[in-house]
């Protein structure tokens, strides 16, 4: 019973899918640049594209999209497989004194679960995204994601989908896209009025906008710098004018803009100089700590807090191994188990390189407010933790120090 309940509370704090590099490589080697992205299809997605339902279902499953999102037309994943559902469950129980008291009796690590439940709570509505996003952009984003919401620690994980699977998923966005009327071509004549309306109507209360407005008032709101890539001008106008007309799942409020005002705001968002701050160079790993480190310390701060969610021991979780151990997000199984001391020791030669790869990738998909995601050559394998920022220097130094000290218990 304790083993099953451990899974229920840990199922989704962080997406840390496959780890692993050549175990013969030097433990502190920097990630070797390698462009692992597959070339984009020669032809863009067109509006009459339609995928076979079986192919579409298989593509959603290959990307493990339902681990975070409710996929329209598909059954919602149970709490043991859905990050947001599991985390909201923990929050709901913790908000009730009676329920929390019972949970602490059943789950020995309940207070740890509460501390760790910070990411993957509300997640963007996939239904609203499918109504408004340009399918051609979706196809490219799935191949090479970057940080769209710098106020959130979590982001889209890196997938290992085939070009055909990405195209099938992009085609699903075609079928659900809102079909609105055509609008005038964006013009710089609207920039001054659009900027004024952007400020006066409260867009800055929720959204970042590149380096012009680097901090989002609502971390869940996307940085509007990417609107010009993610949406067509016609769609951007429709969304600004009345989001709920585009999708009933929209969480953005209707600002009551007149059509001419919505056009001015759209043109400002699509044409204004973004004033980005350049991306910093990828950091190197810190030196291992020389302070004595025990397994209890690294388990509490790293392996039991993050890594276990995807690298579970199936013997302790009714056969469930997690998407890193058993395969997920398009990546094959690694067989790496990071829930027990023995499992971590067995994978210890791979861990430093995995942390270094994540630091390299973070220049693109875990950036700071107002910083433009870098264009990078991605390592062939993803770094860890997948979908979250790199570990802090203190945590990395702790793990490296523990390994260098012979991994004492």
Output the keywords.
globular, 0% strand, disordered N terminus, Immunoglobulin-like
Strand content: under 5%
Number of helices: 18
Helix fraction, binned, reads 40-55%
Number of strands: 0
In whole angstroms, the N-to-C terminal distance is 26 Å
Can you tell me the overall shape?
Answer: globular
Give structural notes.
With 409 residues, this protein is mainly α. Among the domains are: 2-35 and 284-404, no CATH class; 188-271, Cupredoxins -  blue copper proteins (Immunoglobulin-like). Helix content is 41%, strand content 0%. It has helices spanning 2-10, 53-62, 83-94, 97-106, 110-116, 126-132, 135-143, 163-176, 191-200, 227-230, 233-241, 243-246, 259-271, 295-303, 322-326, 341-347, 351-365, 393-404. Helix 2 packs across helix 8. The longest helix has 15 residues, at 351-365. The protein is globular, with a radius of gyration of 22 Å. The two termini are 26 Å apart. Mean pLDDT is 87; it is low at 1-42.
Give me a quick take on this structure.
By secondary structure, the chain is mainly α.
Give the SSE layout.
Layout: H1 2-10, H2 53-62, H3 83-94, H4 97-106, H5 110-116, H6 126-132, H7 135-143, H8 163-176, H9 191-200, H10 227-230, H11 233-241, H12 243-246, H13 259-271, H14 295-303, H15 322-326, H16 341-347, H17 351-365, H18 393-404
Helix pairs in contact: 2-8, 6-8, 7-8, 9-13, 11-13, 14-18
């Amino acid at each position: 019973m304790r083993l099953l309940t451990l899974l229920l509370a840990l199922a989704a704090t962080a997406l840390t899918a496959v780890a692993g590099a050549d175990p013969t490589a030097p433990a502190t080697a920097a990630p070797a640049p390698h462009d692992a992205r597959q070339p984009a299809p020669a032809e863009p997605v067109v509006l009459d594209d339609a995928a076979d339902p079986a192919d579409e279902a298989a593509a959603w499953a290959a990307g493990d999209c339902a681990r975070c999102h409710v996929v329209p037309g598909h059954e919602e994943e149970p709490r043991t497989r859905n990050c947001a559902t599991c985390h909201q469950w923990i929050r709901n129980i913790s908000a009730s004194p009676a329920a929390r008291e019972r949970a602490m009796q059943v789950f020995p690590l309940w207070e740890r679960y509460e501390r760790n439940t910070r990411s993957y709570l509300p997640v963007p509505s996939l239904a609203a995204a499918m109504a408004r996003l340009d399918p051609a952009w979706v196809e490219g984003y799935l191949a090479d994601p970057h940080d769209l919401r710098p106020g959130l620690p979590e982001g889209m994980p890196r997938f290992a989908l085939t070009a055909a699977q990405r195209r099938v998923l992009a085609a699903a966005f075609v079928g659900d896209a809102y079909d609105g009327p055509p609008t005038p071509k964006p013009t710089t004549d609207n920039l001054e009025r659009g900027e004024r309306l952007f400020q006066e109507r409260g867009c800055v209360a929720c959204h970042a906008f590149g380096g012009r407005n680097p901090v989002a008032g609502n971390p869940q709101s996307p940085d509007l710098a990417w609107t010009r890539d993610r949406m067509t001008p016609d769609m951007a106008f429709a969304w600004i004018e009345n989001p709920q007309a585009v999708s009933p799942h929209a969480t953005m409020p209707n600002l009551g803009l007149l059509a001419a005002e919505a056009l001015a705001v759209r043109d400002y968002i699509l044409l204004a100089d973004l004033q980005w701050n350049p991306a910093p160079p990828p950091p190197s790993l810190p030196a291992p700590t020389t302070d004595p480190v025990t397994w209890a310390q690294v388990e509490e701060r790293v392996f039991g807090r993050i890594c276990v969610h995807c690298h579970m021991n199936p013997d302790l979780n009714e056969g469930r191994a997690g998407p890193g151990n058993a395969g997920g997000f398009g990546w094959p199984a690694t067989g790496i188990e990071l829930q027990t001391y023995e499992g971590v020791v067995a994978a210890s030669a791979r861990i430093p390189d995995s942390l270094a790869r994540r630091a390299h990738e973070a220049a693109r998909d875990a950036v700071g407010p107002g910083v433009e995601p870098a264009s990078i050559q991605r390592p062939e394998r993803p770094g860890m933790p997948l979908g979250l920022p790199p570990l802090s220097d203190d945590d990395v130094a702790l793990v490296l120090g523990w390994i260098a000290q012979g991994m004492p218990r």
